[in-house]
């Protein structure tokens, strides 16, 4: 016991002293191990600190209240809810009936003797320094003790009078206002003074103002009603304080009135699942992730951690070997004074333990410190405040142990190698002849074959990505194990190389113990980079082929989706024409049924909708609005035949107008690139120009049904009956062929719509342009559009834009840095090994540049071998994943045809090799590594006595 303790104590003291003496090498290894520990510990602390406890979350939601009662607007019908109040559904089954809709009565759920604080939330456009900003308007007496914790005051105070408001700090930042400024809303003449700034701890980027109950929303609604504009859509919840808390039975009683309750007592002490009626419904229940999914996530996380540790060990291992090689005389003295192989191994392993412990301490401490210092930045980035600075000692200890384990694993091979040196060879510096192990290459070959078989099975017989990924990982580990043997094969190329590269290659092959780990580290990094790059490039090619432009190249469209009857559209049209380089402009409108301020998809009692009536003979037999699925009466063969029918073609291009029905003139045809004199004449003659022949009946007309009673229309649709409404039949001109109308199905002129009795409201405009706008022009336009405060959909057709280019560049840079680092470590070890050869070269009169040249080629050889092997190992997994993806998409396509989902194009899943990335890795990275190594190597000759070998 004492012998073991004292031997390890001495080994650790020697290792600590060597680490301190070789500060550069120690710092390099420490950095490689400590940086991942820093990142993981900081991530763990950030994640845990951002996870709120139930009590903390309730404080932010309820303040000091016992419960919050809200109305889901189910018309007061009874409902069930879960204890967390984030899931609820009506008690009755409304599958074949209209879904309940309408307000409930919150006061019915308020218990006797309770204290009530109303919290009302709406939206409105507020005037800022730059224009108008859509903002939340909240009426809550924030100074009330019940509301304590919902809002955090940063400056000033909460409002105390009807003409005062407080605003979130984010609103003040984006609006250009400050505490003390005057604030007004669009449509309301009343001015409010900003008396305070606050924040919402769970939503730091929310634009919101707070006023006293009844001081802002009600006056604004009255003003908007008078102007015929949409109201604030205010909704009210009630914060309740009740003696004894709000129990689960009280929650269920509130549910009978169609209300949802968030209760503090229930959330902190939830009832058993058997006592929750919602969980007893057939289609409801507690959602839990499956054990298979959990196991898959753990396996994926374990694989990532394992590969990361392997990469660090492969990088750090040669560095420990450098230390052992340079300390071989010291290790020889230990053996000469009675030390055995166990003591030698302990000294080298002690170096890994010392570096590992130091990395764990420094990495964890820096992770904690940086997280604490950067806490405000992290909170702003996440958009929410931390609950507390939550340090989990056991988790941090586990992360720190990974650093220690990594240090020990990295030092194992150098320790075994050093212990096999004889005392004489260590003292004299002789290297002797070393034979490579044949066990490791054999195991590597088995792993490569096994992994390839698994990946091949996954890509050809299944559509499971995990099988392909797992097989690829096993095969890559096998290639890593095969690296010493593969390095030996590269030695046969030396006969055709000049002197310096031949010496470098010969030295690398003869000393595979130091070359193989560095090559394997480069191989692993490059394989991952090439795999991701190949997959990204292939996905990019697939997305490019599937891309469908919304407009001709360079064209511009703008549409405004507001419930104000197109009030801001003229100003927005002018702003686009003023700030962007446009040639033609075509103003477009949309059909409006009901009040002018109805939105395109709004369906309340005051608003309607329209439908294009498709003649029965032109309707796709696979489609129906009735209760039954019409495709059930066809066989699979008939469904496949009908899927190719012209009546079942589906458009996939987005249109700014509902159903693709656009109100415009002949200028729109020119902008869309449709050159048809007949179409222009038809518009002038008051006809509809149709791009979809399914809509044109046998009389050459198109029917547009104006529906004012939405409920009756929905009921008829559920029964498969025609919707009640007013039919407008207008003569139509069908454009011959299949022109690309970019999502539009027809164009109607404003005069034709007016003559047919169809109301329209301004929607936006289309523009043609000879050149794409630059960044400055787009920024100026964004500023102009922001002043309107409207929801504007601006589209500039610039063709397909790849989002993977920056990813490929980042991966290439990462692989290059790892390659240069690993090759540099191997070069340092080679110089330590080849000191005798360098002295001999200097003694026989070799030029000074030979030392630099040899060093550069030694670095280039390692980088080239690793990049070449890594490129080959990385392409195959990506191909396997793409084949699996192709198989899955073809399977889904065949199923869609069998089910009669309509006409679908055959999936295009290409496999694209990123030749630019491979060229940068195969040429630029080794060349850069060679040049860098040559530049940092001293070229002056140092003559000395050459040790006998």
Question: In a few lines, what is going on in this structure?
Answer:
With 949 residues, this protein is α+β, with helices and mostly antiparallel strands. Helices cover 51% and strands 13% of the residues. It has 29 helices and 22 strands.
Keywords:
29 helices, six-stranded mixed beta sheet, ten-stranded mixed beta sheet, alpha+beta, 949 residues
How is this structure best described in words?
There is one protein chain. The chain has 949 residues and is an alpha+beta fold. The chain has 29 helices and 22 strands. The strands form 4 sheets. Strands 1, 4, 5, 6, 7, 8, 9, 10, 11 and 12 form a 10-stranded mixed sheet that branches. Strands 15-18-19-17-20-16 form a 6-stranded mixed sheet. Strand 8 and strand 9 form a beta hairpin. Helix 9 packs parallel to helix 26, helix 15 runs antiparallel to helix 16 and helix 16 crosses helix 18. It is globular.
> What is the number of strand segments?
22
Helix/strand/pairing category: alpha+beta
Radius of gyration, rounded?
Answer: 37 Å
Number of helices: 29
Given the C-alpha coordinates, what overall shape results? globular
- How is the main sheet built? 10 strands, mixed
Helix content: 40-55%
What's the overall average pLDDT, rounded? Answer: 80
Low-confidence runs of at least 5 consecutive residues? none
**What is the CA-CA span between the terminal residues?**
41 Å
């Amino acid at each position: 016991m004492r012998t073991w303790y004292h031997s390890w104590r001495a080994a650790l003291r020697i290792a600590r002293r060597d680490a301190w003496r070789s500060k550069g090498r120690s710092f390099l290894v420490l950095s490689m191990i400590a940086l991942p520990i820093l990142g993981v510990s900081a991530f763990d602390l950030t994640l845990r600190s951002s996870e709120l406890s139930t009590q903390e979350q309730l404080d932010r939601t309820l303040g000091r209240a016992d419960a919050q009662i809200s109305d889901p607007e189910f018309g007061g019908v009874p409902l069930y809810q879960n204890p967390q109040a984030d899931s609820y559904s009506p008690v009755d089954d409304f599958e074949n009936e209209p879904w309940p809709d309408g307000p409930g009565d919150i006061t019915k759920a308020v218990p006797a003797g309770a204290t009530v604080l109303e919290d009302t939330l709406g939206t409105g456009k507020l005037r800022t320094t730059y224009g108008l900003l859509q903002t939340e308007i909240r009426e809550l007496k924030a100074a009330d003790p019940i509301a304590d914790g919902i809002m955090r005051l940063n400056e000033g105070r909460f409002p105390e009078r009807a003409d005062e408001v407080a605003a979130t700090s984010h609103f003040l930042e984006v609006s250009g206002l400050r505490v003390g400024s005057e604030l007004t809303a669009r449509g309301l003449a009343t001015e409010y003074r900003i008396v305070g700034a606050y924040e919402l701890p769970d939503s730091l980027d929310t634009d919101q103002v707070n006023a006293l109950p009844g001081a802002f929303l009600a006056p604004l609604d009255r003003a908007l009603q008078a102007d015929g504009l949409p109201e604030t859509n205010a909704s009210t919840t009630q914060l309740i304080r009740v003696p004894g808390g709000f129990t689960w039975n009280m929650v269920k009683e509130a549910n009978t009135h169609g209300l949802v309750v968030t209760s503090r007592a229930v959330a902190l002490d939830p009832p058993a699942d058997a006592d929750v009626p919602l969980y007893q419904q057939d289609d409801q229940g507690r959602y839990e992730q499956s054990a298979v999914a959990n196991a898959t996530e753990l396996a994926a996380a374990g694989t990532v951690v394992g590969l990361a540790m392997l990469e660090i060990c492969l990088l750090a291992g040669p560095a420990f070997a450098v230390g052992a090689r340079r300390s071989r005389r010291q290790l020889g003295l230990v053996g000469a004074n009675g030390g055995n192989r166990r003591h030698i191994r302990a000294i080298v392993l002690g170096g890994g333990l010392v570096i590992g412990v130091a990395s764990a301490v420094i990495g964890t401490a820096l992770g904690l410190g940086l997280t604490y210092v950067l806490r405000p930045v992290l909170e702003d980035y996440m958009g929410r405040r931390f609950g507390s600075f939550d340090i989990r000692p056991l988790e941090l200890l586990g992360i720190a142990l990974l650093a220690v384990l990594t240090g020990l694993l990295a030092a194992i091979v150098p320790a075994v190698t050093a212990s096999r040196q004889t005392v004489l060879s260590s003292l004299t510096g002789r290297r002797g002849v070393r034979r490579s192990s044949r066990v490791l290459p054999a195991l590597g070959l088995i792993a490569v074959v096994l992994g390839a078989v698994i990946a091949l099975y996954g890509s050809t017989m299944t559509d499971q990505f995990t099988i392909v990924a797992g097989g690829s990982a096993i095969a890559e580990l096998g290639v890593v194990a095969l690296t010493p043997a593969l390095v030996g094969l590269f030695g046969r190329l030396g006969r055709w190389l000049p002197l310096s590269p031949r010496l470098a290659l010969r030295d690398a092959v003869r000393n595979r113990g130091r070359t193989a780990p560095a090559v394997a580290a480069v191989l692993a990094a490059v394989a991952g980079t090439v795999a991701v790059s190949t997959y990204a490039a292939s996905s990019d090619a697939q997305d490019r082929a599937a891309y469908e432009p919304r407009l001709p190249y360079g064209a511009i469209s703008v549409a405004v989706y507001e419930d104000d009857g197109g009030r801001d559209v003229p100003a927005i049209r002018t702003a686009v024409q003023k700030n962007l380089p446009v040639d033609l402009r075509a103003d477009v409108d949309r059909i409006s049924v009901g009040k002018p301020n109805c939105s395109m998809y709004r369906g309340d009692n005051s608003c309607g909708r329209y439908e294009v009536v498709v003649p029965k003979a032109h309707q796709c037999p696979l489609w129906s609005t009735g209760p039954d699925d019409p495709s059930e009466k066809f066989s699979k063969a008939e469904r496949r035949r009908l899927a190719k029918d012209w009546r079942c073609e589906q458009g996939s291009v987005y249109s700014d107008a509902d159903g693709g029905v656009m109100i415009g003139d002949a200028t729109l045809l020119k902008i869309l690139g449709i050159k048809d004199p007949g179409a222009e004449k038809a518009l002038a003659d008051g006809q509809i120009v149709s791009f979809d022949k399914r809509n044109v009946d046998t009389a050459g007309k198109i029917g547009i049904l104006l529906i004012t009673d939405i409920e009756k229309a929905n009921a008829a649709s559920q029964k498969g009956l025609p919707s009640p409404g007013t039919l407008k039949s207008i003569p139509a001109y069908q454009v011959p062929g299949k022109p690309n109308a970019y999502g539009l199905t027809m164009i109607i002129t404003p005069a034709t719509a007016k003559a047919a009795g169809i109301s329209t409201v301004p929607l936006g405009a289309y523009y043609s342009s000879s050149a794409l706008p630059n960044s400055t022009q787009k920024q100026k336009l964004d500023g102009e559009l922001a002043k309107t405060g409207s929801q504007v959909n601006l589209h500039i057709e610039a063709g397909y834009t790849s989002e993977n280019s920056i990813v490929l560049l980042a991966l290439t840079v990462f692989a290059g840095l790892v390659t240069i680092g690993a090759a540099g470590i191997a070069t340092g070890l080679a110089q330590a090994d080849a000191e005798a050869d360098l002295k001999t070269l200097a003694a026989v009169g070799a030029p000074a540049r030979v030392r630099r040249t040899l060093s550069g080629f030694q670095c280039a050889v390692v980088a080239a071998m690793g990049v070449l092997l890594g490129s080959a190992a990385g392409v195959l997994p990506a191909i396997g994943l793409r084949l699996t993806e192709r198989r899955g998409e073809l399977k889904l396509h065949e199923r869609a045809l069998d089910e009669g989902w309509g006409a679908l194009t055959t999936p295009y899943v290409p496999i694209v090799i990123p030749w630019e990335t491979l060229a940068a890795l195969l040429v630029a990275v080794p060349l850069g590594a060679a040049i860098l190594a040559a530049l940092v190597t001293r070229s002056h000759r140092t003559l000395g006595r050459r040790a006998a070998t």
